[in-house]
Every structure is written in C-alpha cells, then in structure tokens.
Design brief:
This is Glucose 1-dehydrogenase. With about 250 residues, the chain is of the alpha/beta class. It has seven helices and seven strands; from the N terminus they run βαβαβαβαβαβααβ.
C-alpha cells in the first residue's frame, strides 16, 4: 500500500521540473492527482503518461477564477481534496532593486506569493469540511537568506512571504487537523536552476557542503513525507533541503 493511498492532491507547476517529479512520485505512492500548469501541452502529456490517476488542467495560479475551476474539477472527479502542493513559481528578472521595474516585481509576487494565497484560499473550505488536509508550500532557500550570486529582490521577497503565509495558515487551521508546511530547496537541477545558473550550477557547488546539485526526486521525497500521515505532528515549519548551503 502506498504512503498516499486514497488521497487526492492538487500539484501546481506540474509540467516540468520539481512539479512533474512530484506528480510521478505522488501517483507512485497511490495518490490521485490534479496537475495544473500554464503549459497545457506538457502537463497534458504528463497526465496521459500517468493514466487514470491523473487529471491535467491549464491554470494560471494568479487567477482566482482559475483556482475555483481547479478545485471544482478536483472534487467533481475525485470527490475531495486532501493535499495541495503549491509548487508553481517563476524566477523573474535578475536586476538590482533600484533597476527593477514595478511591473516585473508585481508579476513575480503575483505568481510566487499571491498564487499560494489563492491556492490555500481555494482548498481550505473542502479540507475544513473533511476535517483534515496537508498543504505543502514550495518556497526556496531565498525565503531563508538572500540570494546567492545574483540580485533578485522580487524573488526573495516573494519567497520570504511564503513562510509567513504558511505560518499564518498553520495557526488558523490547525484546529481542523489541517497541516501547512513550507519547503525550501537549494540548488536543485531543474529548468529554473539552469536558467539562473547554467547547466553546471555556476559557482554553486563551491558553496554546498555536500558538494553537488540536488535532484528533483530528493525534493519529491520530502513533499511525499509532508503530504502523508507520517508527518501528522508537523505543521507551520520550514523544511530546508539544500545540502547545507544555509548552515552558516
């Protein structure tokens, strides 16, 4: 029996990278998954690969009406929502704060911060009705410390905000047996990492005590743990997975 047997999860940003790895891992552990992304072709192909346990939806996480459609479809197809993995995120421009355009800043926060708020707002009524649930909000080590190696105030601000949203929700909804945790990956080999630091991660490995870039599957293992009943006494916490980058 899988660790997520009988549970239904919504996973955003599921077309590639960590989101796609989470989708495969969750299905492997017995979950039914609603996979959302703005890249309809890629997320559709992933759902086809995963079979009847997966449903794909084109989805802009910064849209409230989009979130209403996703939760409505999840309940219609799978009857309930047990898990939300707020994985979707964008890097945005790397520029000094004084050179950052207001519209660029707002766009990053709309996806990385407001999208997570909307996701929790959308699923919480269903979870309250069931008196159980697990929400996993994907932040970054840039939500723990300032970025390594390049300026990106919008990204840092949005990822720090995820920590606050996570803690606020954990306090408010713990009495309904709903757990809310944040995950803070370091340098993980994904398309976003390559976009930011190149195929080899730039100088990142020199700052990593374990001396290597992480894999998306390693983050998936953490997400599965937090989504499962194995973490039933854990909520409101930051879970750093960075091979020691933020030790000091």
């Amino acid at each position: 029996m899988g660790r997520l047997e009988g549970k239904t999860a919504i996973i955003t940003g599921a077309a590639r990278g960590m989101g796609a790895a989470h989708a495969r891992g969750f299905v492997r552990e017995g979950a039914r998954v609603v996979l959302t992304d703005q890249r309809a072709d890629l997320v559709g192909a992933l759902a086809e690969e995963l079979g009847s346990a997966a449903l794909a939806m084109e989805h802009d996480v910064a849209s409230w009406s989009g979130w209403q459609d996703v939760t409505r479809e999840a309940i219609s197809c799978f009857s309930k929502i047990d898990i939300l993995v707020n994985n979707a995120g964008i890097l945005g421009p790397t520029a000094p704060l004084a050179e950052l355009e207001e519209a660029e800043y707002a766009r990053v926060c709309a996806v990385n911060q407001h999208g997570i708020f909307l996701g929790m707002k959308a699923v919480l009524p269903s979870m309250v009705a069931e008196q159980r649930g697990s929400i996993v909000n994907v932040s970054s080590i840039s939500g723990i410390v300032a970025n390594y190696g390049f300026p990106n105030a919008a990204y840092v601000a949005s990822k720090f905000a995820v920590r606050g949203l996570t803690k606020a929700a954990a306090v408010e909804y713990g009495r309904y047996n709903i757990r809310v945790n944040s995950v803070h990956p370091g340098f993980i080999y994904t398309p976003m990492m390559v976009e930011a630091a190149g195929e080899e991660g730039g100088d990142a490995t020199s700052m990593i005590p374990l001396g290597r870039i992480g894999t998306d599957e390693e983050v998936t293992n953490l997400a599965i743990f937090l989504a499962s009943d194995e973490s039933s006494y854990i909520t409101g916490a930051e879970h750093v997975i960075d091979a020691g980058m933020t030790i000091q």
